[in-house]
Amino acid sequence: MDEVKVVVAHSERATLRVGDVFLKVDADQTRIDVEVEAMALAPVPTPEVLWRKPPVLALSAVPGEALGRLGEPSTASPAAWGAAGEAIRRLHGAPLPPRRGRAGAGRDELAAELDGECERLVANGVLPADLVTRNRQVAEAVFQPWTPVFTHGDLQITHVFVDGDDEITGIIDWSEAGQGDALFDLAILTLGHEEHLDDVIAGYGTDVDRDVIRAWWLLRSLLAIRWLAEHGFDPFAPGGEVDVLRACM
Fold first, then answer.
1. Of 79, 95, 103, 107, which is least surrounded by CB within 10 A?
2. DSSP bridge pairs for 60
């Protein structure tokens, strides 16, 4: 019998691997609805939906290896990072999905969330005030007009799989997908891996505003730190979200 491996588990959801099958358990069926819908529409390789019986979604494993991990040097080649950029460009050029995604928050909504989170980080002594204030100021570059595209919404490097130097074999975890800002996806992919931003942009094949990508790195880190700590992850790990903020000082 195949070993059961816990891939991730916290109070909101859990993912288990049994052989070549991933079982995603999520109490919020809306997230599962979004994931299934987005994978059916996305013009890039995605896992196959094997079956669904709420609250469980069964998906096939995708071949290849993850592009990398936050806080660790990526062993993927520049060509592989470029292939990821090309795949993202295909996704962003596809017809819009019906829902607004994680990357599609409005300016007022996002600013209010950021202000509240920054206040809590300082009030609870999680981060020093000068670090939060400086990064909050730079992050304001994301508050600009953008044209909605089909975004993944959680395009961490662990969610992009490659085989060899230049083939994207699968992109996983689509529960945050929907209409949003293209630069958000590019930022999440390269968070903590700024050295590969040029490779991704070369594959993406069009000019982008690097200042906005950097602003998204900071905004995403500020919003994620408390959630990560409360759900068993360490944002203070080398190369993680806190180091991303410190690099701006």
1. 95
2. 21
Q: Domain residues for 226?
A: 63-246
> Tokens at residue 181, please?
């800002």
242, 137 in Cβ contact below 8 A? no
Which is more confidently placed, 12 or 237? Answer: 237
- How many Cβ atoms sit within 10 Å of the Cβ of residue 234? 12
Q: How many domains does the chain have?
A: 1
Backbone φ and ψ for 24, nearest 5 degrees, come out as: -105, 125
* Residue 192, Ramachandran bin (φ over 0: left; ψ between -120 and 50: alpha; else beta): left
| Contact predicate 135/221, CB 8 Å | yes
Q: What is the CATH classification number for the domain harbouring 171?
A: 3.90.1200.10
In a domain, 97, yes or no: yes
Residue 144, in any domain of the structure: yes
**What whole-number distance in Å separates Cα of residue 124 and Cα of residue 141?**
26
Whether 142 is covered by a domain: the verdict is yes
| pTM of this structure | 0.93
Task: Examine residue 135 and state whether it is found in any structural domain, yes or no.
Answer: yes
Q: How many residues does the chain have?
A: 249
pLDDT tens digits, one per residue of 214-240: 999 999 999 999 999 888 889 999 989
Please tell me whether residue 34 adopts helix, strand or coil conformation: helix
